[in-house]
Amino acid sequence: MTALEHEDSPVYLKLRAIIATSILRGDYRAGDQLPSVRALAAEHGANPLTVAKAYQSFQDDGYVEVRRGVGMFVLSGAVERLRIAERDRFLNGYWPKLREHIALLGLTANELWDREIA
Hints:
The protein is 59% helix and 7% strand.
């Protein structure tokens, strides 16, 4: 789960965030095969149908393609398009709430910037 996913998010969205993070980090590049539904389900203790739903969302968004009998593969240009979509999601969804919380706590930009990442 990424730092931006909430504990109460549906499991398929948490899995989607994990996959998106892996693609954006470069763990999976254009042409790379993603783990099978069963493998990812076992790794994260999830129901295979839930993993399939997360994968389907990537297919619907045009980031991956299914090759029947072979697996799911990251499409060319997916990383760039995914980065744009995730930036938009962050700036329009998370950032306003995060900014409001920062102001509520009276934190300064310097306090945040100088904080070590654990």
